[in-house]
Specification:
InterPro entries: DDH_dom, DHH_sf, DHHA1_dom, Oligoribo/pAp-PDE_c-di-AMP_PDE
Protein name: Bifunctional oligoribonuclease/PAP phosphatase NrnA
GO molecular function, one term: nucleic acid binding
Radius of gyration: 26 Å
Oligomer: single chain
Structural class: alpha/beta
CATH superfamily of the largest domain: inorganic pyrophosphatase (n-terminal core)
Keywords: Membrane, Transmembrane, Transmembrane helix
Mean pLDDT: 89
Helix content: 40-55%
Strand order of the largest sheet: 3-2-1-4-5-6
Pfam families: DHH, DHHA1
Number of domains: 2
Length: 392
């Protein structure tokens, strides 16, 4: 009985407010209705439409890749830049680190990719930053202070964009996500040798961009054989009409650097094995991009189901792992193996992972600074084997 009295009292109070302040009530109802309508429109729009609208509201933006960008990162960046340029936004692609892998250099050269290196946050070309193929800025001075406008990625992580976050860890490549953005806005791939005007479309995927995005998908999924989702196949099929096969072949078959071949040989000859797991320390290298290429070779050996290759460049230890073993999630294995190294950064997917261990800076009694390895490589190998075996 008391509950009914309370409800009756509340209803009476609401009625009194409506009678005494009808204008305020009407305004409140309009606000609620407007919010509901906005939410409905937001739910009805696709990620590609929302992303294009966000970029269109900016005069300029930076598309920022991860350190030492690979084809998927470069392809996703050129795709985002092409989207921005079609809505009259000035886009600049930037990256920390180097581009040394022959495949990556060929990608940049063949597709005439206009990108700029960045060593400090003050060198960013615009205030608004869009991260592609990673979700937390890293690799240059001042990067910790960046609050990205948007994030487009397929790697696990805690990073997010201030106004837009699209992280799809079930996708094999970030390029597939960007290809979907083009599809969402009904963009038409432009066939190689044709002009965009011949498509009679208001939005297009330039042939250079379609070629890059397809190669980004192929590179990150080992030609759609490892870690590829249905969405990656769909994206590849969508892009195909705009692909320049000659350029695709030139990127896929560049000249191989002699050091890369030497490091591959070192990795095979110097491998340590425990059961079906292999770890190889290739020592000091001048080209860190040779390390993942060596891992690609090592995983092809008969009887080997998971591999990690270690190398050191300028006192920084680089790791690259590959797995075709359902017992081994390579990203988590590398993260676990480097837990005790305070300067380590490692992770990745089930089939593919990587990481770096930067040197530690120590101050001597005389006040001088010195850089020492943050983790002994012999101990690191032991930790990797333990992590691969689940003995942690």
């Amino acid at each position: 009985m008391e509950q009914f009295v309370a409800i009756d009292g509340a209803v009476s109070a609401i009625a009194t407010v409506i009678e005494s302040r009808p204008v305020l009530v009407a305004i409140g109802l309009v606000i609620i209705a407007g919010g509901a309508a906005a939410a409905y429109r937001w739910l009805r729009t696709t990620p590609g439409e929302r992303f294009s609208e966000l970029v269109a509201d900016r005069e300029a933006a930076v598309v920022l890749m991860h350190p030492n960008p690979d084809p998927d990162a470069m392809a996703a960046a050129m795709g985002v830049a092409a989207l921005g340029e079609q809505v009259d936004t000035e886009m600049t692609i930037q990256y920390p680190g180097q581009i040394r892998h022959q495949e990556n250099r060929a990608f940049r050269t063949v597709l005439e990719l206009d990108i700029d290196a960045v060593d400090h946050v003050t060198e960013l070309a615009a205030e608004d930053v869009i991260l592609v193929d990673h979700n937390e800025p890293r690799g240059f001075d001042g990067c910790d202070g960046i609050l990205p406008l948007a994030v487009v990625d397929h790697h696990p992580g805690d990073g997010s964009g201030e106004q837009f976050t699209d992280v799809r860890t079930d996708y094999g490549a970030a390029s597939s996500i960007v290809a979907e953005y083009f599809s969402d806005i009904d963009a038409v791939p432009v066939p190689a040798g044709e002009h965009a005007s011949e498509t009679n479309a208001s939005r297009v995927v330039p042939s250079f961009t379609a070629t890059g995005l397809l190669y980004g998908i192929l590179a990150d999924t080992q030609h759609l054989t490892v870690g590829a989702a249905a969405a990656d196949f769909d994206a590849a099929a969508y892009l195909q009409p705009g692909v320049d096969e000659d350029k695709l072949d030139r990127i896929a078959n560049p000249e191989v650097d002699a050091e890369v071949l030497e490091i591959k040989a070192r990795a095979i000859a110097g491998r340590q094995t425990q059961g079906s797991f292999a770890v190889s320390d290739v020592g000091t290298v001048t080209n860190a991009d040779a390390i993942p290429q060596a891992a690609d070779e090592l995983i092809r050996l008969e009887g080997i189901t998971a591999v990690v290759v270690i190398g050191e460049r300028e006192r920084t230890i680089h790791l690259s792992g590959r797995s075709r073993d359902d017992r081994v999630h390579m990203g988590r294995a590398l993260e676990q193996a480097t837990t005790d190294a305070p300067t380590a950064s490692a992770g990745g997917h089930a089939r593919m992972g990587g990481g770096q261990i930067a040197p530690q800076t120590e101050v001597t009694d005389g006040g001088e600074t010195d850089q020492e390895p943050a983790m002994n490589r012999d101990r690191l190998i032991e930790e990797i084997f333990a992590s691969l075996s689940g003995d942690v």
